[in-house]
Design brief:
Layout (H helix, E strand, L loop, with lengths): L2 H14 L3 H29 L5 H16 L2
């Protein structure tokens, strides 16, 4: 099943939910799933060595700040 089809089906089902508590539980589940997915991606990146050192991160962050605030 295509991702877009799943999304549309979920939206349709969410629109029919009436209980606020049910919607809150669903929101928590979605947040948990998103966080787990991001953690898995991060762990895979770490395993592949696709990371920045703290010095590289600071340098890139400073460059980004300089670019953002010197326009």
């Amino acid at each position: 099943m295509r991702t877009e089809t799943i999304k549309l089906g979920l939206i349709d089902r969410l629109m029919r939910v009436q209980e606020a508590s049910t919607l809150q539980r669903m929101e928590k589940l979605i947040i948990q799933a998103e966080m787990e997915s991001r953690a898995e991606k991060s762990l895979k990146a770490i395993d592949k060595g696709d990371v920045l050192s703290m010095d590289e991160f600071r340098k890139e962050n400073r460059q980004w700040l300089k670019k953002k605030y010197t326009k």
